[in-house]
Amino acid sequence: MQALKGLVAVMGALIVVALAILGYGLYQKAKNPDFKFFNLSGVQQAAPRAAPRVEASSAAQGLTQSRASVAPFGDLNLNMDRGTRIVSSQLTGNHLLLQVRRPDGTDAVAIVDVARGTVLGVVTVAP
After folding, report:
1. How far apart are CA 54 and CA 85, in angstroms?
2. What is the DSSP string of 55-122?
3. Stretch 44-56: mean pLDDT, rounded?
4. Do residues 123 and 61 lie in contact, with contact meaning Cβ atoms separated by under 8 Å?
5. Does position 45 have pLDDT exceeding 60, yes or no?
6. How far is the C-alpha of 118 from the C-alpha of 68, rounded, in Å?
7. Which residues are CB-contacts of 123 (< 8 A; sequence separation ≥ 6)?
8. Which of 20, 28, 30, 90 could form a disulfide with 35 if both were Cys (CB 3.0 to 4.6 A apart)?
9. Nearest to 79 by CA among 45, 118, 41, 43
10. Chain-centre distance of CA 21, in angstroms?
11. More reliable by pLDDT, 124 or 11
């Protein structure tokens, strides 16, 4: 009976430790979305490099690069023409891909670096 009580006490302590680790992981993930306890892929990841600055071209038709600070950058203004609609969005890593449809019917894809709050570039698709 004494051994069973000891086993229950040890298992209870393990549960408390596991909950503390889980709480710490959730806290770190809330602060840094890229936080990982372990690199399970077996491949060393290189430190992220700064993306080259891309100035908006005439094809961007009003979409310009924002010069916001790294974190948090607050509101990001894409300076789109009035009537432009976001058709779809997709988050891939630290990049947000926004498919937009302009009032004249042309489509474009804006690539936004969410970590820096900048527009990396715009791909325009002609009708």
Report:
1. 23
2. ---GGGTT-------SS--------PPTT-EEEEEEEETTEEEEEEE-TTS-EEEEEEETTTTEEEEE
3. 52
4. no
5. no
6. 7
7. 108, 109, 111
8. 28
9. 118
10. 24
11. 11
